[in-house]
C-alpha cells in the first residue's frame, strides 16, 4: 500500500510542477517547501494560521491553552482556532466560502469536497507529500485517493475505525433463559432467532412479568439489523457483482430472505410489536432500561452501558457477540465509509503558510506529535508516577487536550481512544474488541461515489421512503413477501436504473 502511494506521488510530481508554473495564480500549486518565488520557508517568520474545527457538546480550548502555546513555540506560529458548533459547522463554512474568506485549514464533508474541487480552494497535496513522509504514510492508499480526481490529492482523509460497532448481548439473560453463549464459529441466524425468542417469552430478567422485548428495531428497520442484512447477503448500500455496482434495493432473493425472517419474528412475538413507533434512540433507551437484551455498540459503550444496567440489575453482564452466519455462510459487522470527508488546506493562502501547515501536520502524524495531541502536555495534563505509570491531572479533564485530535485531524490508529493513563486491562479489551470486529467486514463498495450521481442527489430520498414502506408492509404482514418484486420494479422505473448507471459510470472513472 505504501508503494502505491509512493508511485502515485512520483507519477503526479511532474504534473504538479507544471501546474505550479502555469501562472493560474493558485498558491496551492507552489512547489515543495518553497514559495512561488522559490524562497524556502526557514520558519523564522512568525505566521498566523487559522484552523476551523467542529465543537461538540460545547467543548473547545481556552485561548491560553497549553497545547496551543506548545505548537506556537515549536512552529513559530500564532494559532487561531475558530471553534464552531458541530450542528452549524457546514452552514458557517458555506458562508465563509461564499465570501471568499475560508480558514487556512478546515474540514469538509464529501459533498462539498467534490463540489469545490474545481474552485481552486484546495491545495493539491500530491506534488508535496514526498517531502512530508510521516503525513504521506499516515493513511491507507485507498482513503488518500477516495473522491479525488486522477492524479490529485486535494484533502487528507478524516480517518475512523472502519468497523466500530458490533452486537452486545446480555450474557446474564442468556443464562437466565437456560441457554449457553453461542460458539463464534457456528453461531447462525437460526440460533440468533432462538435467543431472541427466549428473550421475548421466557422472562429473562426474572421479574415474573412478560415485559421484555426479543428483537428490537426501529421504524426505519435500522437499529440492530445490519448484521442480519449482512447474513442474508444484502449489500451494505452497494456491492460489486461481476464488476458492477448494485444497490440492496434490487436484490430480490436476499430481500425476501431478510424480510421473511423479520416477518416470522413479528408474527411469533419475537420482535418488539411497537417497533413502528420507535426511532433508533428509543430502541437504545429500551436496551438501557433493561427491557431488551441486544444492542449494536462500541467498546466504550459496552462499559458505560454495563454500569447503567448494573444500577437496574446488579447481575447484568454485557459481552460482545459475533455476527450470525446466514444461509449461504455470509456474516458481517457494518463498516463505515472512512476517508470520504477530508481535512483540507486552503489553496489560496501564502505558500509559506501552506508549508508551515504541512510541517506541523507531518509532525502531528509522528508518535511524538500524536502523543501530545492525544494526551496533552506532560506535567500539565498528566504526570508520570514513580512506578512508571501515568495519571491524568484535573486540568487534563477540563482542558480536553485530545479534542483537536479527536474532532479535527488524526492519523489512522486503532488505539485512537487509548491514553497514557488508560488502564492496561481496558486498553487490551478495546484492542481485542476491535480485532474481533475486523474479522467480519460488511463493506459498502460504493466508496462514496453517490456524490457523482445527479439522479441520486435528486431522487434517492423519495425512492428510499417508498421502498421502506414496502418493506415494512411485508414485515407486519400487510403484504406478502413476494410483493417486494413490485417494489423493486417501481424503484428501478422511478429513477433507480438511472442511479445504477450513473454510479457505475462514476466507478469506472474514479476507481480505474
In short:
The protein is an alpha/beta fold and 512 residues long. The protein has helices at residues 2-20, 66-75, 86-99, 110-115, 133-136, 141-145, 171-176, 189-201, 226-231, 252-267, 280-288, 299-312, 351-364, 367-375, 394-399, 403-407, 424-438, 454-475, 484-510, and strands spanning 47-52, 54-55, 77-81, 84-85, 105-108, 156-157, 166-170, 238-241, 244-247, 294-297, 318-321, 333-334, 342-345, 382-384, 390-392, 441-442.
- The name of the CATH architecture of the largest domain is 3-Layer(aba) Sandwich
Q: What overall form do the CA principal axes indicate?
A: globular
Major β-sheet profile: 5 strands, mixed
CATH H level, superfamily name of the largest domain: Periplasmic binding protein-like II
CATH C-level name of the largest domain: Alpha Beta
Structural class: alpha/beta
Outline the structure in words.
- The chain is an alpha/beta fold.
- The chain contains 19 helices and 16 strands.
- A five-stranded mixed sheet has the order 3-1-5-13-6. Strands 10-7-11 form a three-stranded antiparallel sheet. Strands 2-4 form a two-stranded parallel sheet.
Helices and strands, with pairings:
Elements: H1 2-20, E1 47-52, E2 54-55, H2 66-75, E3 77-81, E4 84-85, H3 86-99, E5 105-108, H4 110-115, H5 133-136, H6 141-145, E6 156-157, E7 166-170, H7 171-176, H8 189-201, H9 226-231, E8 238-241, E9 244-247, H10 252-267, H11 280-288, E10 294-297, H12 299-312, E11 318-321, E12 333-334, E13 342-345, H13 351-364, H14 367-375, E14 382-384, E15 390-392, H15 394-399, H16 403-407, H17 424-438, E16 441-442, H18 454-475, H19 484-510
Helix pairs in contact: 18-19
Amino acid at each position: 500500500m505504501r508503494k502505491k502511494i509512493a508511485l502515485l506521488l512520483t507519477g503526479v510530481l511532474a504534473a504538479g510542477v507544471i501546474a505550479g508554473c502555469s501562472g493560474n495564480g493558485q498558491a496551492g500549486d507552489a512547489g515543495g517547501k518553497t514559495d512561488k518565488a522559490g524562497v524556502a520557508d526557514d520558519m523564522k517568520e512568525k505566521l498566523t494560521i487559522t484552523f476551523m474545527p467542529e465543537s461538540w457538546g460545547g467543548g473547545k480550548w481556552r485561548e491560553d491553552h497549553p497545547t496551543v502555546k506548545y505548537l506556537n513555540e515549536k512552529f513559530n506560529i500564532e494559532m487561531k482556532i475558530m471553534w464552531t458548533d458541530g450542528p452549524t459547522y457546514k452552514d458557517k463554512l458555506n458562508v465563509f466560502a461564499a465570501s471568499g474568506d475560508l480558514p487556512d485549514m478546515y474540514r469538509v464533508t464529501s459533498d462539498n469536497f467534490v463540489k469545490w474541487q474545481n474552485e481552486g480552494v484546495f491545495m493539491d497535496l500530491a506534488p508535496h507529500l514526498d517531502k512530508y513522509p510521516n503525513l504521506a504514510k499516515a493513511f491507507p492508499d485507498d482513503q488518500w485517493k477516495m473522491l479525488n480526481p486522477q492524479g490529485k490529492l486535494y484533502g487528507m482523509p478524516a480517518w475512523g475505525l472502519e468497523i466500530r460497532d458490533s452486537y452486545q448481548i446480555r450474557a446474564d439473560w442468556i443464562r437466565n433463559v437456560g441457554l449457553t453463549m453461542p460458539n463464534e464459529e457456528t453461531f447462525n441466524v437460526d440460533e440468533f432467532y432462538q435467543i431472541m425468542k427466549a428473550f421475548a417469552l421466557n422472562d429473562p430478567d426474572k421479574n415474573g412479568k412478560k415485559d421484555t422485548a426479543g428483537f428490537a428495531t426501529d421504524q426505519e428497520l435500522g437499529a440492530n439489523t445490519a448484521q442480519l442484512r449482512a447474513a442474508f447477503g444484502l449489500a451494505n448500500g452497494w456491492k460489486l457483482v461481476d464488476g458492477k455496482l448494485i444497490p440492496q434495493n434490487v436484490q430480490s432473493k436476499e430481500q425476501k430472505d431478510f424480510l421473511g425472517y423479520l416477518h416470522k419474528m413479528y408474527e411469533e412475538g419475537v420482535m418488539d410489536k411497537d417497533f413502528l413507533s420507535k426511532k433508533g434512540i428509543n430502541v437504545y433507551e429500551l436496551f438501557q432500561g433493561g427491557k431488551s437484551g441486544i444492542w449494536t455498540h462500541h467498546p466504550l459503550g459496552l462499559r458505560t452501558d454495563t454500569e447503567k444496567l448494573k444500577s437496574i440489575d446488579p447481575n447484568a453482564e454485557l459481552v460482545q457477540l459475533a455476527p450470525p452466519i446466514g444461509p449461504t455462510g455470509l456474516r458481517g459487522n457494518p463498516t463505515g465509509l472512512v476517508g470520504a470527508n477530508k481535512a483540507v488546506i486552503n489553496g489560496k493562502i501564502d505558500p509559506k503558510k501552506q508549508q508551515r501547515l504541512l510541517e506541523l501536520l507531518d509532525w502531528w502524524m509522528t508518535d511524538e506529535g500524536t502523543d501530545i495531541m492525544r494526551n496533552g502536555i506532560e506535567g500539565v495534563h498528566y504526570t508520570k508516577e514513580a512506578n512508571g505509570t501515568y495519571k491524568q491531572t484535573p486540568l487534563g479533564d477540563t482542558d480536553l487536550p485530545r479534542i483537536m485530535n479527536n474532532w479535527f485531524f488524526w492519523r489512522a490508529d486503532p488505539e485512537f481512544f487509548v491514553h497514557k493513563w488508560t488502564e492496561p486491562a481496558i486498553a487490551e479489551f478495546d484492542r481485542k474488541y476491535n480485532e474481533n470486529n475486523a474479522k467480519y467486514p460488511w463493506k459498502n463498495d460504493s466508496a462514496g461515489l453517490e456524490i457523482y450521481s445527479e439522479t441520486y442527489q435528486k431522487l434517492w430520498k423519495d425512492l428510499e421512503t417508498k421502498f421502506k414502506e414496502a418493506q415494512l408492509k411485508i414485515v407486519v404482514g400487510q403484504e406478502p413477501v413476494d410483493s417486494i418484486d413490485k417494489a423493486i420494479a417501481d424503484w428501478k422505473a422511478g429513477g433507480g436504473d438511472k442511479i445504477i448507471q450513473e454510479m457505475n459510470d462514476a466507478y469506472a472513472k474514479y476507481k480505474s
